[in-house]
Amino acid sequence: MRVLVLLDGTPADPDAPLIRVDDLGLLRGDGVFETILVVDGEPRELGPHLDRLARSAAMLDLPEPDRAAFERTVDVVLDRWAGGTEIALKLVHTRGVEGGDGTPTGFALATDISPKVLAQRVEGIAAVTLDRGIEPGLAERAPWLLLGAKSLSYAVNMAAVREAERRGAAEVVFTTSSGSVLEGPTSTLITARGRHLTTPPAELGILPGTTQAALFRAAEREGWTTEVAPIDVADLYSADGVFLVSSVRKITRVHTLDGKALPDSAELHARLDALYESEY
């Protein structure tokens, strides 16, 4: 099932042609988006997602997203949803049409979560490390590269996933050329050692994760320690668990990296999943 609502609150047919061919989000990927998990009609981390949408828009010098309009649009989508209990809700904000009056394009699209992603949550995934071609400090030195913005320009990310599939894996762990861990194409990386969780810093040019933040809050409440710090690729093989987390995939364990089996983290995964769910 799919539900589409335009930013003015108008429901639309998701199978009908609606985006203009000269929309800059389509022509150049000149826009930003967020994907929100909705469970039993309740959007998770809606505020942080809208905050991040606004930060990404500012990085692209886009018009500021109309937060109230997006909140109303979300309500309309959820009122019209009659599908499964878990939804992937995508909010999109583009620069609008080329040569237009500057009015941005905005909409919300809700879809069921794919069976593949649901299975990966349970079974875990194999991943490969791929060089992202960036180094520490690049985001600060070259802000025009938009590192850390959730833009619509995801061609590189999707190419990386296809390369992983060619190598017999399902996912990617991006790295710097010097071997520091970054993130997944659509996820944040977390390592666990005992009751200590670590994720790479945003200063490396990665997108701060809303799911990672929720997990860290829950873990800290239960006496775990958390840290935002650099991680080397070698550290992934010695960790008790490696996880890729996002709104839709939730907490997904990596059981194999570059063809090498990682320590069995099934029990640890269950504990982290329970911690995350305790936030809601």
From TrEMBL:
Its EC number is 4.1.3.38. Pfam families: Aminotran_4. InterPro entries: Aminotrans_IV, Aminotransferase-like, BCAT-like_C, BCAT-like_N, Class-IV_PLP-Dep_Aminotrnsfr. It comes from the Bacteria. It is an enzyme of class 4 (lyase). Gene3D superfamilies: 3.30.470.10, D-amino Acid Aminotransferase, subunit A, domain 2. GO terms for molecular function: 4-amino-4-deoxychorismate lyase activity. Keywords: Lyase. Belongs to the class-IV pyridoxal-phosphate-dependent aminotransferase family. This is Aminodeoxychorismate lyase. It comes from Saccharothrix lopnurensis.
